[in-house]
Amino acid sequence: MGTAPTSELTPLGDYVNGTLVPISGLPHGWEFHSAVALGPAEERTIVREPVEAVPEAIAKRLGKVRVLAVPYIACTESGDAVARHKPAGETHTAAWVETPEHINLLLACRELDAHDTGFELLASLAELLLPRLTSDERTAYNRLLDEELRHGARGEIDEEAFAAKKAFLGASPGQPSASPLEHYRGVSFVSTAAEFMHGLWHDVQVRIGPEHLPVAQLRRRMTLLAELFPLNPGYRLFDESVEKAQ
Question: I need a labelling partner for 16 at 20 to 30 A (CA). Which of 9, 61, 79, 82 fits?
Answer without folding.
Answer: 61
